[in-house]
Amino acid sequence: MCEGVITIVLAGGLSTRMGRDKALLELDGIPLLTRICTLGLAVSRQVYVVTGRDYGEVLPEGCDRIDDRVLEGPLYAFSAALDQIGDSIPNLHPTDWILLLSCDLPYLDQATIEQWIGQLDSVPEEAIAYLAKNPQGFFEVLCGFYRVSCRESLNQAVAGGERSFQRWLRSQRVAELKWDDRRVFFNCNQPEDWEQLG
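User: That's the sequence. What structure does it adopt?
Assistant: Structure tokens below.
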């Protein structure tokens, strides 16, 4: 567990493309949301789940819920969560890191996250995020790290009507996380994605 890392799990989507709540899809008998929260608890000092739903039965002990009933998208949800956390956690330092994860990352594992955390000390101080890029050059925004200090810039962007992670990050200094195994970033958005796991 790393004291300088806090995990935020986004589970507020409507799962419209999937046709059912993807947070509750079970892999080896374990809901995806339970699995990703358990990973967060293993590698960080605290886990927050941002959602408008009651997932009490599947949230591991030790996770805190942040209510999201606005459904303005993941950038807005991240901004609201970071505000709530920043105002409530003692000893939270601007250089601490937020590990931001979507709830549907079936291939992500603890060893991979711990390897990434071991690289955080080498990230330039002026970088507000440490993220991988996909083959198309877009950031993997829902499986990576953001400094607590991104809060001001993020709030300004959201207040200005921005709802795109990619557009917001284009104006920021982002350090690139190099990673060969692209499977860890695979997420389940539609039934065909889920069937690939079978």
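The helical segments are 32-43, 74-88, 110-117, 151-159, 165-170, 191-197.
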